[in-house]
């Protein structure tokens, strides 16, 4: 909604007043050397609310030269930050975790305003995103090496871990807080400094979070933020500069592939969290109640705009009709509207291009023989809404079986045998996550071994957890975020050989 309007459910205009006050607190500059400053030439761009299409605020639009200033700041701050005691780094991250929880109302509202997800999901993201700060505050003090004797006994092997250096972090728009904390927290815990480029569609949450880091005492230059509409030139400037030592990117596979090529000349460490095309398998022995509940979460969380969103539902032929009827009944009852309004489960998609994409994918599937059980259409504006949709009898050649849907469209097809299910599930260049519903333990174990994905939800519809290694196989990415693995992405190993001290 327009921040200056009131609504039927908010007759006193308290939401409008809170919105105006909140937007007034979001830093509107670039964060470089611990100071918010304007972009070169005072350039700015507009951030809009996808629920209304109306502008929220204008913020600084970094140029390639600004990006190099940010990198210079990260480079200057690096030696001192790398020497800060791990316990001190840990306590700063822990303080940021506490502060984020204290200000959860503000962060949740800001995410809903700039990205569109329903407010209760934004609260969920504050909790999830915050956990990376808590987890990596605990990991910062557990960076360990080893000491050993060579097999010949003539030397001693010392293995130590060191921060990789200034890092460039690029985040997508779909989880504005969690995608930032999932990178910034392990980088800082490891002793690295960072330049963050948030998605230009949703930069506000990152800026407000960076201010929290300054407020709790993270030193100037350790975290730099460069919102920009010129992602390509800004990224090229940084990646071509020898001062940057690591690139961590979350976004689409095509952009990730380009960035890997950009990172090659400098032989940068890279972490890539890319696209997905998750299969959701419901076997004949599944607990159908659990499978239906899991399907709704795995598909419609974040309005279907998650890399982990279930993209293809393969349901055993014996259950497919009942499964389809039950998900259709639930989906038909979903309420679509602005994420700030109570009771809404389906907020707007990020922009009108996303709506057009859902429309095209549904039309293509229907033209090839799929049937629409509920939904199927864009909702007239203002705002970029698409109805929550269930498609049945989706044929294998439908475009949405190969492409990420990234919208609220649940596409169901069927299978007869376990071998067929596995073949269909693995028939994609992506390998981020799979979901399996079965009560047969041996089958579940076979799925762990046979499904070619970096993550698997076994009788659960969401896998994300700060303590677990999030990441994909095949063209879904490189490296892991979260878990003990997450901090290793920001550390490099040194092996030192010493002589036999007794020789
Ligand atoms: P995107 O690739 O368009 O953009 C991601 C980020 O890269 C944004 O900050 C964008 O501004 C920037 N960018 C775009 N073009 C660039 C270029 N040429 N050079 C440098 N930076 C560039 O992706 P998106 O639409 O923001 O996000 C959706 C995609 O992200 C989906 O494919 C989704 O699966 C993926 N994703 C993956 C994960 C994961 O953990 N695997 C998590 C969330 C989203």
TrEMBL record:
Keyword Cell division recorded: no
Record keywords: Oxidoreductase
TM region positions: none
InterPro entries (alphabetical): Ald_DH/histidinol_DH, Ald_DH_C, Ald_DH_CS_GLU, Ald_DH_N, Aldehyde_DH_dom, Aldehyde_DH_Superfamily
Residues forming the catalytic site: 273
UniProt superkingdom: Bacteria
Sequence ranges assigned to domain Aldehyde dehydrogenase in this UniProt record: 36-495
Record-level Gene Ontology MF annotations: succinate-semialdehyde dehydrogenase (NAD+) activity
Gene Ontology process terms (BP): gamma-aminobutyric acid catabolic process
Family the UniProt entry places it in: Belongs to the aldehyde dehydrogenase family.
Protein name in UniProt: NAD-dependent succinate-semialdehyde dehydrogenase
Organism listed in the record: Propioniciclava flava
